[in-house]
Design goal:
The structure is a single chain. The protein contains ten helices and nine strands. Helix 9 runs antiparallel to helix 10. The protein is globular, with a radius of gyration of 19 Å. The strands form two sheets. A six-stranded parallel sheet has the order 1-4-3-2-5-6, sandwiched between helices. With 279 residues, the chain is of the alpha/beta class. Bound molecules: pantoate. Pantoate binds next to strand 2 and helix 6.
Length: 279
Amino acid sequence: VELIVTVPEMRAEMARVRAGGSGVAFVPTMGALHEGHLSLMRAARDAADVVAISIYVNPLQFSPREDLSSYPRNLGRDLELARAEGVDVAFAPSTEEMQPRGRTTTIGVGRLATVLEGAARPGHFDGVCTIVAQLFNIVMPDVAFFGQKDAQQTAVIERMVSDLHYDIVIYARPTVRAPDGLALSSRNAYLNADERARATVLFRALQAGAERWSSGADAAAAEEEMRAVVAGVDGVVLDYARAVDRDTFDAPRAGRAPLLVIAARIGGTRLIDNLAVEA
Ligand code: PAF
């Protein structure tokens, strides 16, 4: 895997790849790679001749109260894992490289970015969109891969790509889970053993909500079921448990199966998860 840290070098390398007739599949990450990221890289490997990833902990998507300084970073390990997956190029710029003039132009997609995760983390999705737009402009990939674990983020990026007419196909890949159901996330590293055990309640709540929905209940009953499961575990503070439309993240549309979404805080760690239910 070739490590590139400057924008001009990354542009030049991607231009060279395109000039040679190769397509580029791109996986943006914030590093602290886990099996979820690696599954995206494998899918990228199948999709194009050249796989590029980015490793950049993006300050724009963290609020001042969030975990920017403590976010796990280990570039050496990440590069090893990327190499083992056959990644060709890893772009790991500094903040100075990405934002040499500080925060100026900001991309926002409107309402979709202000509900649920957007409400809990004001400005978060503007920060995500701004950096992903920058990365798309630098890498200019043909396809890009995102995890379904961050379903609202993927919807926000799809909206941005559509609105700004990026010629990039966005793929969302399934959430990778630990054997006990916990969705893999870089933030799981913050959980102590006790918190890690409690964290399985998110997936259990989603499953219970999905079962309720499948047995003919409405969205409100599925939400109630999720809340009840979380209430049964001490030390888990529910942020939201909702059944939403999978495109707008507003109330589900009649006749269309919703996406169940959940966010909860366990100790100092905020975790999210989601599950698509069948119609
Ligand atoms: O999902 C992430 O890791 C980040 O939000 C992303 C898409 C790399 C943008 O910083």
